[in-house]
């Protein structure tokens, strides 16, 4: 594309610009630096708080109670080590999927990473490319650009020489050459990104919930801690040292530091495991979004089908012989620079002659569904979807429908009286012939559809092809409900009508790019978590707005840039393994979160109660450390590694609270019960601590039991190990734990207390469950009344 006056920069000019820092480097790496990783895991609010509490214990002189600091240090080291390991892997994969730019330098064409583009580079852009730097158009071959991610306007903009190309926009038709005028942080997209993100982040209900919990606890912790210390200092016989230690115990229990570590490390390890399965996660939240997806939208080409197309028949129409169609197609097939799968199939079938001279052309776009060309002295021709070029010819429509029912794609070649390159329109189209194309179904597609059906995920196929063709292919591939299809041109523009209509179909054909986006939003509006798999420039808008956008590495740069996950092998089949991995990660985090939140909930309640009672807090730090190690740390580590895909669809917090809340309330009632019985054994403080330790440990072990349900051999072994470890500490080192040996006769008091704990936990579990059921019924009733008032009983 370069002539003598457009040879591009010389090597010396490129090096000069690099030296001046005029390089297209933007700080948007998907992985953190090693320094950032260390800071993330060490310089945290809770780490500083634990350090402060550790200093208080040292001041108290009761050094055995500082063991909790060891757990904090080990947790931070584990987090750093794991993230370093994953960073190494992700950085390698990022190089593979890095976007490339085509530039002209010294008169030759080079393909380089977009981070090596410099100021004044001559940059070639083609259909499907995302513009990586602001540029001025020098040459335009029917160039049309979608700037929706920058301006919000989805209608393509035609570009002529002298026009501006903005970084972040992408080509939907044609090709051209531009001279780079801005690089790096000076690019329009970079400036815009500093004001607001253009790409919707993947949704993470779990992380949002945990973040809110942390914020509330973080704010409440300081005043509660101060009030607790004041109340402990007023306890009869309490020394300054005792007051500090019991206050530290209360505050430590409120801190869910293990939960923060668990979620971050689980997501980091998940990113690493998915990377080994050849999937690059560009946002960690995407793991949860993908795990919770219950509607998965796919493009047909490259997902259900291999994407390898073949022309199987050329048929003349009316008086036109197939040989005449061949003659025109020999010229049309090689006249356009924007090469896609269909174009490649045409170029394989027809022969390049170059006998006709091109005077003007309209490139293909997903919106028009056709391309047109004018040859000097040979007239105008158009090639595209029959439904868009000739709607009124009933005989032709029946012929096309016959091919479509066999799962074949059909292109119509027609002559036209005139064409307008300004608005991309053609007039006076006369059909000449049909180009019949075959698309092969992926052999693994039926197994993938069966997996998603078993996981209660609805598959929706959204394609730009003929709906009958797409439906036939979907049915052959084993898609349940694939026979329910609709032509997107008949879909209502009213969004409320679209919401109710989309639920009845599994296949959408002749879908325009902006319609894909609307269909995604309609499913989301119906309370679905929606995933979108695509690879083309026509999928960009839908990928951007999906809860989890998944792109193929072999797809367009624009699609990869906006997607949350990129499939490096461009293989739809590996999505099964990726969803399975994501569901396992989220399922395990949901399960073990109950362990941590139980401790946080009962610690908050106990702190408030003992502030009001002005009695000694029921635990000291060493006791809580042992309970946490045996009944939280060990089971959370083991359960996080378990292979399970049972993601709860009722919401993260609700699922966790159904276990955590009744157990936490049981702990609070048990401690209050023991306080009420203190006069019975004459106020013996050591005996009180011993019973607190035994009953507190028992409640924590009950949480482990609930979390392990339903039991399997691994969970039974884990539960047995938790019992043995806790009992070993109580039996072997009672003095270290600040309790009596368990073989004293007073320990018999623990038996009736334990029985009451079991009964109490059972009653509270039923009550909490009933409360959630009643709340759900109430919410449904309110929604039904609102719908009725709106005149929509459904």
Automatic annotation (TrEMBL):
One of its GO terms (cellular component) is membrane. Signal peptide: none annotated. It is found in: Membrane. It holds the Pfam family E1-E2_ATPase. GO terms for molecular function: ATP binding; ATP hydrolysis activity. Residues 97-195 form the P-type ATPase A domain. The chain crosses the membrane at residues 42-60, 213-232, 244-269, 593-613, 619-639, 659-681, 687-705, 717-743, 749-768. Gene3D superfamilies: Calcium-transporting ATPase, cytoplasmic domain N, Calcium-transporting ATPase, cytoplasmic transduction domain A, Calcium-transporting ATPase, transmembrane domain, HAD superfamily/HAD-like. Its main location: membrane. It is a multi-pass membrane protein. InterPro entries: ATPase_P-typ_cyto_dom_N, ATPase_P-typ_P_site, ATPase_P-typ_TM_dom_sf, ATPase_P-typ_transduc_dom_A_sf, ATPase_P-type_domA, HAD-like_sf, HAD_sf, P_typ_ATPase. It comes from the Bacteria. PANTHER family: CALCIUM-TRANSPORTING ATPASE. This is Cation-transporting ATPase E.
């Amino acid at each position: 594309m370069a002539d003598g006056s457009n040879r591009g920069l010389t090597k010396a000019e490129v090096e000069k610009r690099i030296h001046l820092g005029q390089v297209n480097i933007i700080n948007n790496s998907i992985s953190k630096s090693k320094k950032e990783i260390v800071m993330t895991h060490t310089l945290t609010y809770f780490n500083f708080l634990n350090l402060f509490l550790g200093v208080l214990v040292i001041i108290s002189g009761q050094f055995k109670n500082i063991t909790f600091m060891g757990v904090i240090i080990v947790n931070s080291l584990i987090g750093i080590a794991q993230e370093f390991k994953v960073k190494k892997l992700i950085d390698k994969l990022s190089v593979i999927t890095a976007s490339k730019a085509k530039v002209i330098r010294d008169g030759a064409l080079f393909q380089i990473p977009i981070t090596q583009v410099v100021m004044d580079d001559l940059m070639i852009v083609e259909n499907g490319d995302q513009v990586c730097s602001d540029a001025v158009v020098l040459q335009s071959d029917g160039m049309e650009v979608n700037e929706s991610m920058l301006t919000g306007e989805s209608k393509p903009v035609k570009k002529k020489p002298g026009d501006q190309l903005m970084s972040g926009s992408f080509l939907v038709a044609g090709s051209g050459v531009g001279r780079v005028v801005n690089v790096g942080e000076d690019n329009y997209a970079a400036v815009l990104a500093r004001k607001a993100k253009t790409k919707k982040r993947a949704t993470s209900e779990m992380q949002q919930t945990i973040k809110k919990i942390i914020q509330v606890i973080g704010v409440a912790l300081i005043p509660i801690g101060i009030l607790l210390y004041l109340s402990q200092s007023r306890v009869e016989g309490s020394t300054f040292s005792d007051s500090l230690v019991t206050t530290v115990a209360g505050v430590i229990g409120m801190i869910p530091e293990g939960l923060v570590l668990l979620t971050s490390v689980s997501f980091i390890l998940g990113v690493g495991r998915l990377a080994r399965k050849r999937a690059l996660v560009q946002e960690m939240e995407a793991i949860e979004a993908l795990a919770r997806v219950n509607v998965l939208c796919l493009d047909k080409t490259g997902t259900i089908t291999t994407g390898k197309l073949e022309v199987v028949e050329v048929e003349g129409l009316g008086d036109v012989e197939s040989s005449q169609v061949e003659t025109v197609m020999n010229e049309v097939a090689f006249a356009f620079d924007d090469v896609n799968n269909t174009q490649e199939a045409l170029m394989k079938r027809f022969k390049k002659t170059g006998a006709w001279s091109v005077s003007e052309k309209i490139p293909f776009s997903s919106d028009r569904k056709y391309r047109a060309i004018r040859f000097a002295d040979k007239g105008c021709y158009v090639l595209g979807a029959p439904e868009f070029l000739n709607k009124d010819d009933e005989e032709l429509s029946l012929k096309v429908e016959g091919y479509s029912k066999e799962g074949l794609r059909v292109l119509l070649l027609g002559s036209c009286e005139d064409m307008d390159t300004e608005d991309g329109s053609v007039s006076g189209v006369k059909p000449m012939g049909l180009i019949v194309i075959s698309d092969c179904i992926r052999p693994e597609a039926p197994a993938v559809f069966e997996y998603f059906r078993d996981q209660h995920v609805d598959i929706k196929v959204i394609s730009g092809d003929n709906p009958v063709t797409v439906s036939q292919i979907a049915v052959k591939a084993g898609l349940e409900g694939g026979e329910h299809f609709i032509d997107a041109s008949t879909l209502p523009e009213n969004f409320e009508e679209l919401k109710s209509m989309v639920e009845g179909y599994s296949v959408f054909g002749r879908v325009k790019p902006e319609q894909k986006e609307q269909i995604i939003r309609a499913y989301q509006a119906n309370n679905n978590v929606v995933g979108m798999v695509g690879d083309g420039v026509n999928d960009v808008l839908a990928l951007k707005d999906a809860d989890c956008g998944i792109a193929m590495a072999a797809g367009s740069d624009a699609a990869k840039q906006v997607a949350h996950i990129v499939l490096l092998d461009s293989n739809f089949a590996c999505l099964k393994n990726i969803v399975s991995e994501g569901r396992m990660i989220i399922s395990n985090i949901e399960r073990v979160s109950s362990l941590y939140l139980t401790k946080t909930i009962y610690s908050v309640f106990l702190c408030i109660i003992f502030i009001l009672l002005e009695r000694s807090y029921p635990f000291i730090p060493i006791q809580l450390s042992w309970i946490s190690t045996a009944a939280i740390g060990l089971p959370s580590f083991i359960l996080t590694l378990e292979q399970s895909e049972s993601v709860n669809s009722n919401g993260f917090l609700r699922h966790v609270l159904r276990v955590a809340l009744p157990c936490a309330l049981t702990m609070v009632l048990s401690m209050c019960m023991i306080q009420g019985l203190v006069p019975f054994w004459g106020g013996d403080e050591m005996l009180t601590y011993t019973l607190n330790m035994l009953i507190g440990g028992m409640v924590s072990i009950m949480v482990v039991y609930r979390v392990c349900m339903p039991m399997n051999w691994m969970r039974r072994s884990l539960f047995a190990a938790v019992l043995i470890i806790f009992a070993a500490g109580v039996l072997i080192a009672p003095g270290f734990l600040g309790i009596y040996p368990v073989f004293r006769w007073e320990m018999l008091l623990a038996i009736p207390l334990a029985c009451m704990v079991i009964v109490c936990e059972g009653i509270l579990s039923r009550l909490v469950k009933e409360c959630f059921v009643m709340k759900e019924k109430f919410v449904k009733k309110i929604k039904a009344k609102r719908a009725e008032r709106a005149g929509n009983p459904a």
